[in-house]
Amino acid sequence: MLRFTLPDGTEAETPVHTLLNAGYAGRSQDDVAAHVKELAELGVPAPKVTPALYPVAPYLAMQTDSVPAQHARTSGEAEWALVVTPSDVLLTAACDHTDRALEVHGVAWSKNAGPDVLARRAWRLSDVADRLDALRLTAHVDGALIQDGTLAELLAPAYWLDELRARGLATPGTVLLSGTIPMDPAVDQFGTHWQVTLTDPATDAVIDLAYDVRLLPEPTE
User: Fold this and answer.
1) Contacts with 208 (C-beta within 8 Å, 6 or more apart), sequence order
2) Mean pLDDT confidence for 7-24
3) Distance, CA of 150 to CA of 134 (rounded, Å)
4) Helix-then-strand count for the chain, H and E
5) What is the spatial distance between Cα 103 and Cα 44, in angstroms, rounded to a whole number?
6) Given a cut of 90, is residue 19 above it in pLDDT?
7) Could you tell me the domains of the chain?
8) DSSP alpha helix (H) spans, the chain
């Protein structure tokens, strides 16, 4: 069950039955190519089709302050998320925490090896629909700015809502993450504290989330 506080103080909630992660979803093909190159440096093969859409186990949609990891090569990705509730479509901040060691063997596998962390507050999509491209998305890892861009860099929510409708998935309980913006390669992504912020410059309203990465104990083998 996901629960969100809306700007008017009311709450919206929905159980999650479908969780989808968009990938290689930049509106600019230059940005998409840069992201493919960034992943290729980590050994991730180029996708056959862009944009991609990865189904993820619904229980991995979480509102949490702590993410367990099996090893030190996991990292987040700043994204926005659409959440379809019984009464509305919400927009919120999210962080797709991905297993980079597993990613070289399969992106879909890596997406299912870590949670999609969502903020605890959200906006009604209709309330910000006239200025979506101006919304700013940032990520910090261990205090260092690693991602900074606007929603204009990514395929628009309307694009993904059309995709959901075409697939019969625009129903309460569906959550879709947007795909991410480029990372600063000079910043070490393998940190222990992630923070993602979605800002509306028109109102200075902010939706944010933060979590610590917690290494699990070593397995006995």
Assistant:
1) 93, 119, 195, 196, 197, 198
2) 96
3) 6
4) 5, 17
5) 6
6) yes
7) 2-215 (3.90.850.10)
8) 29-40, 100-103, 107-111, 125-128, 157-166
Give the helix/strand (H/E) hosting 92: strand 89-96
Asked whether the whole model's pTM tops 0.70, one would answer yes
pLDDT at 7: 97
Residue 34: pLDDT band (50, 70, 90) is confident
- Specify the residue for token string 């230059």: 30
Report pLDDT digits (tens) over 48-106: 778 989 999 999 999 999 999 999 999 999 999 999 999 999 999 999 999 998 888 88
- The single-letter code of the amino acid at 201 is P
Q: Could you give the 3-state DSSP secondary structure of residue 134?
A: helix
Residue 123 has pLDDT above 80, yes or no: yes
- What backbone torsions phi and psi does residue 57 show, to the nearest 5 degrees? -55, 130
Rounded Cα distance, 181 and 139, in Å: 10
Sequence-distant (≥ 6) Cβ neighbours of residue 73 within 8 angstroms: 99, 100, 101, 190
